[in-house]
Amino acid sequence: MLRLQKHLLPLHRSTSPTHLFLQRASSSPSHFAAEDYLVTTCGLTREEAAKAAKCFSHWKSPANADAVLAFLTGPALGLSKADIAFLVTKDPRILNSSVANNLRARLDGFRSHGFSTAQIRSFVRASPCSFRTFNIDEKLGFWMSFLGSPDKFLRIIRHNNYLVSSDLDKVVKTNIRLLQERGLSVQDIDNMCVTKPRLLTYNPDVTRAVLVRADELGVPRNSLMFRQAVNTVASLGPETMASKLKMMRKTLGCSDAEVARMVQMNPLVLRTSREKLQRVYEFLTKVVGVDAKYIQGRPTILMYSLERRLAPRNYVMKVLQEKGLIRKDFSFYTMVTVNEKVFYSRYIHPYKDVLPGLANAYASACKGRIPT
User: What keywords appear on the UniProt entry (predicted)?
Assistant: First the structure.
């Protein structure tokens, strides 16, 4: 009996709750240490740390992570605590990187393509998941040659991380070729990247479909507006496009042919919301006093801000007409389309002695306070 108890006692101890807790704790100390490290040292939330800690089940100590953080926050790059928390949340495996064999070489790679330390920091903030892995020489070599500067590259990548993940030959260069086949120059395509940053990283089949639909708008390929046609179609799906055309016909009282001509003159008018189109149309016809034909011949006028452009400049025009300083039949469109600097030089400054309060009245009108 005593011998049996001696055999059972160790078994009883090994299965006690306290013993099992200690056994579990000691069997995975690295998991708990990693999670705590991510919270206290890297600034992650407990939930983020629990998710990221799965990448560090092999950790025996935080020595490598400490070296990585020291490098990233040190003079080489100068990331802030907030930057580190964001970077580690998006790419926790960066803490497993080798400073000597990976990170230092990556910074050197960026700098070899003209990036300053501040610009590299901007890239990390814009594309944290790519910083550790993308092929710097291949991707930056191409994009710096195509775009011309790190600043332009960074402006685009803030809206399109696919610049560093898309296949250059199968996707990017194919899309460039498709656009060039439609008569767009490299400079045109470069400019389009800024306004429509995903255009070069679409699946080429999508790009082909976009170009077909742009052709269907009837904008000549050799015109300056064709680039805008492509940008517009790329922003609007087929159903949305059909809905926009229908909305314009109804709101403006136009025929299909009249709407088509307006779109050919400025495809960007299709991106105007129904509410804005309605409000601007009513203002132009009821307050300014122009008719539908006038608007149809100048569709760009529908795109200007009612509060910040149309109403304030209409106020100035009416004042100048009432004082006999400009003709009664002066073109409102001419007054609207010039930039702010030219507007002041033509319609405000020349009359500062005759109408000393005009500049202040115009400034108030631009803030929504139209003088009565």
Answer: Transcription, Transcription regulation, Transcription termination, Transit peptide
